[in-house]
Amino acid sequence: QVQLVESGGGLVQTGGSLRLSCAASGSTFAGFYMDWFRQASGKEREFVARIHWNSGITNYADSVKGRFTISRDNGKSTIYLQMNTLKLEDTAQYYCHAILMGVREYWGQGTQVTVSS
């Protein structure tokens, strides 16, 4: 049974930092794209960042470029999202997502990030 378990969310002031983790288990994730999405209250879920499990190639939403960094530890089957210079508009539920294109995908339950002024 595949599980993606997020952790690391919390309350932080504007300009602060948080690191989210996504522990992946129950499958080999070779070939998967591992993503972070977020959903703010009353808004649609949006893409934040992506990393390819094998190559480590990354890409980011324009809104987080230069502030967020996605990384992976293949040995621990864990994906990280380092979030710096947090803004009020970064407040959202953050979700881990794993997708093997055209084959299968999985979602975690999410972790809440709240940025306060």
Description:
With 117 residues, the chain is mostly beta strands. Helix content is 0%, strand content 56%. The protein has no helices and 11 strands. Strands 2, 4, 5, 6, 9, 10 and 11 form a 7-stranded mixed β-sheet that branches. The protein is globular and about 40 Å long. The mean pLDDT is 96.
Major sheet characteristics: 7 strands, mixed
Q: What would the principal axes of the Cα set say about the shape?
A: globular
Q: Helicity level, as a percent range?
A: under 10%
Low-confidence stretches: none
Summarize the model shown.
With 117 residues, the chain is mainly β. The chain has no helices and eleven strands. Strands 2, 4, 5, 6, 9, 10 and 11 form a seven-stranded mixed β-sheet that branches.
List the helices and strands and how they pair.
Elements: E1 3-7, E2 10-13, E3 18-25, E4 33-39, E5 46-52, E6 58-60, E7 68-73, E8 78-83, E9 92-100, E10 104-107, E11 111-116
Parallel strand pairs: 2-11
Antiparallel strand pairs: 1-3, 3-8, 4-5, 4-9, 5-6, 7-8, 9-10, 9-11
Characteristic terms for this protein:
mainly beta; 11 strands; 4-stranded antiparallel β-sheet
